[in-house]
UniProtKB/TrEMBL annotation:
Keywords: ATP-binding, Biotin, Ligase, Nucleotide-binding. This is biotin carboxylase. It comes from Olsenella profusa F0195. The keyword Magnesium does not apply. Residues 1-444 form the Biotin carboxylation domain. It is an enzyme of class 6 (ligase). The keyword ATP-binding applies.
Length: 444
């Protein structure tokens, strides 16, 4: 195992990784921006280095500064968390060139799976069904021609997209051109790559994803699935595991397809294969792969008993998995609610946390970097923390999530816990047969 690692992130995920390191006896170095001098990850790490101004480009995305701190501090590996540089093959390459282990798959595999257009071809070649669609679109004329073939509604999606950005839904022919330009320019400014492809819009659909983990000795396992259909603007709000919408046969098929795909690219590390699932005909299709630790990883940890962050570090250090597929048993039910700093109209809310009460009790987990008195800067993601609960059955788990949310208090910023309570009390959600359009129904 590494003696010292650098964590190239902030917020709750930096805290999560630091905790895993402490439990494994690994020293921790963090980097931070001038806006984060008072943040929790800086306080609990063994070492903290300020690397620049508040804007991500000046700090958390500043590859050279991060790699320099890693080398200077004597760290031998870098954990990128999620977001920021976690899916950057350029960063993974820089780490490798400086003799640092990037805790994630190789830059070659990131390139292959991170380009969503190429990932579709890779999935197809591995025998995994993909959503009907196109390759990279050359221009708006080609987009119009392909739209005619695929039919409406359809989605124009950025090949470099992430976090729900760079996606446009198109309902009719005369809207193709405009949507193509919009998706392309949004992706160019957010990801530095305006390349787009097209997919048929599947509706009603579920977002179901499979967690995979591979080591450098050729072993690949899957660790159950997560239902992530509670979304607003293609961004996840609440996740649960196991998925209440799939049949045991579909579950097995999805998991096997995920393992086949991971094996076909020699996947080493933790990753997630996302599918769209149509319950009407019990079919699923590959959507994308995230080559990193996922926000909602704790629900998988609860139902499998596997610490994903520790295993992510162990496989990066060259260790062999200590369990085979047959040793993994999904038990009980887990739900995660993402608590965001936002107003009821979904505008970001910043400020100083004056009062904070975090729910507790058995199998109640709250992953956060919040503390009383912390000031939430406006430069970053609006997530305040994640509430994760576990119970033997889904019914009890839903009640437990409601009960724990009812205990959560934060004053000084607005948060979305009321919205989360509305979701948890919604009949469609409670039935378990909800789709990605649940939030639209909730507002009606
Ligand atoms: P997950 O797939 O883990 O649920 P999300 O899609 O919610 O993740 O994204 C995780 C976090 O990373 C979010 O805070 C999101 O804003 C950010 N993010 C996702 N993709 C990118 C990207 N390509 N560039 C920058 N930030 C990203
Ligand atoms: P990102 O990289 O931003 O996470 P995804 O490709 O995973 O983008 O899509 C984000 C969300 O958009 C999905 O979870 C799903 O709800 C919706 N979506 C994506 N592709 C389709 C599709 N072809 N049909 C219907 N919904 C889709
Ligand atoms: Mg996705």
């Amino acid at each position: 195992m590494f003696e010292k690692i650098l964590i190239a992130n902030r917020g709750e995920i930096a805290v999560r990784v630091i905790r895993a390191c402490k439990e494994m006896g690994v020293q921790t170095v963090v980097v931070y921006s001038t806006a984060d001098a008072g943040s929790y990850h800086v306080q609990i790490a063994d070492e903290a280095w300020c690397i620049g101004g508040p804007r991500p480009a000046d700090s958390y995305l500043n590859m050279d500064a991060i790699v320099t701190v890693a080398v200077e501090s004597g760290a031998t590996a870098v954990h990128p968390g999620y977001g920021f540089l976690s899916e950057s093959s350029e960063f993974a390459r820089k780490c490798r060139e400086c003799g640092l282990v990037f805790i994630g798959p190789s830059p070659e595999v990131i390139d292959r799976m991170g380009d969503k257009d190429e990932a579709r071809r890779t999935a197809k070649a591995a025998g995994v069904p993909i959503v009907e669609g196109t390759g990279l679109l050359g221009d708006a004329d080609e987009a119009e021609r392909e739209a005619k073939r695929i039919g409406f509604p359809l989605l124009i999606k950025a090949r470099a997209g992430g976090g729900g950005r760079g996606i446009r839904k198109v309902e009719a022919r005369d809207k193709v051109r405009g949507a193509f330009q919009e998706a392309s320019s949004e992706a160019a400014s957010a990801f530095g790559d305006g390349g787009c492809y097209m997919e048929r819009f599947i509706s009603p659909a579920h977002h179901v994803e499979v967690q995979v983990l591979g080591d450098a000795h050729g072993n690949v396992v899957s660790l159950g699935e997560r239902e992530c259909s509670v979304q607003r603007r293609n961004q996840k709000l609440l996740e649960e595991s196991p998925s209440p919408s799939i049949t045991p046969a579909v579950r097995d098929h999805m998991a096997k397809a995920a393992r086949d795909l991971a094996r076909s690219v020699g996947y080493v590390g933790l990753g997630t294969i996302e599918y769209l699932y149509s319950d009407a005909n019990e079919t699923f299709a590959f959507m994308e792969m995230n080559t990193r630790l996922q926000v909602e990883h704790p629900i998988t940890e609860y139902v499998t008993g596997v610490d994903l962050v520790k295993w992510q570090m162990r496989v990066a250090a060259g260790n062999e998995l200590a369990f085979a597929q047959d040793d993994i048993h999904v038990q009980g039910h887990a739900i995660e609610c993402r608590l965001n700093a936002e107003t009821p109209d979904f505008l970001p809310s910043c400020g100083t946390v004056e009062t904070l009460h975090i729910p507790g009790g058995p199998w109640v987990r709250f992953d956060t970097a919040l503390y009383q008195g912390v000031t939430i800067p406006p430069y970053y993601d609006s997530m305040l923390g994640k509430l994760i609960v576990y119970a033997p059955t889904r019914e009890e788990c839903v009640r437990k999530a409601r009960s724990a949310l009812g205990e959560f208090v934060v004053e000084g910023v607005s948060d979305n816990s009321e919205l989360q309570l509305d979701i948890l009390s919604n009949d469609e959600f409670v039935s378990g047969m909800y789709h990605t359009n649940l939030m639209e129904h909730l507002y009606e």
